[in-house]
Amino acid sequence: MSASRTHLTVVQGDLTEQAVDAVVNAANSSLLGGGGVDGAIHRRGGPEILAGCRVLRNGHYGRGLPTGQAVATTAGRLPARWVIHTVGPVHSAGTDRGDLLASCYRESLRVAGELGARTVAFPAISTGAYGWPLADGARTAFTTVRAALAEAPDAFDEIRFVVFDDRAREVYEAALTENGG
Ligand code: ADP
């Protein structure tokens, strides 16, 4: 039995269509847009998000957002209140960067908690252009989120994992079952 009251859900669909308090963006360290999830968020959310990112670049994040960290902006026209930008590690066959991937989930939840977000939607961070194997990414996501929820059992109502295609949904559902359902 889970110690937390938070529901962990897997949803197949488009991250930019999720009506949640906070949507997590698989950003790159420039914070100025990219492909995949990042491109979709900026396209659909409109210029307000990029304006928020530019403010961050002109302030505390002059050199960009370091890998494994997270920071929030408005969600613009998305059906969410905030976008939490986090930078996943590029997968490397030679170096284990799993701690950085875990940090993305942990830091994003920390920022979400500070904002007062009760529902948070995550993409499969690093598993697209950054080449992270999906099953390992899913395991890292669930393990890390569960550990964070054990520390803050009342902070969130739902953590939603949004996957794009059938294979990703199967992998995520299997990983969620393995990780305690
Ligand atoms: P990264 O650069 O961190 O690897 P990507 O955006 O390239 O991030 O991909 C991360 C994951 O998100 C991939 O599994 C990809 O299939 C998925 N993805 C891409 N676009 C969307 C979207 N609009 N909604 C949900 N998932 C998406």
CATH superfamily caption: Leucine Aminopeptidase, subunit E, domain 1
Can you count the helices? 5
Question: In this structure, how is the largest beta sheet organized?
Answer: 6 strands, mixed
Identify the strand order in the major beta sheet: 1-6-5-2-4-3
Radius of gyration: 15 Å
What's the number of domains? 1
Per CATH, what is the topology?
Answer: Leucine Aminopeptidase, subunit E, domain 1
Number of extended strands: 6
Query: Which small molecules are bound?
Result: adenosine-5'-diphosphate
Low-confidence stretches: none
What best-fitting shape do the alpha-carbon axes yield?
globular
Distance between the termini: 9 Å
Helical fraction equals 25-40%
Q: Could you tell me the mean pLDDT?
A: 96
The name of the CATH architecture is 3-Layer(aba) Sandwich
Secondary-structure element order, N to C? EEHHEEHEHEH
Q: Mind explaining what this structure looks like?
A:
The protein is an alpha/beta fold and 181 residues long. It has one domain (7-178): 3-Layer(aba) Sandwich (Leucine Aminopeptidase, subunit E, domain 1), CATH 3.40.220. The chain contains 5 helices and 6 strands. The chain has a 6-stranded mixed beta sheet with strand order 1-6-5-2-4-3, with helices on both faces. The longest helix has 18 residues, at 98-115. The protein is globular, with a radius of gyration of 15 Å. The mean pLDDT is 96. Residues 14-16, 26, 36-38, 40, 88, 123-130, 162, 164, 168 line the site of adenosine-5'-diphosphate.
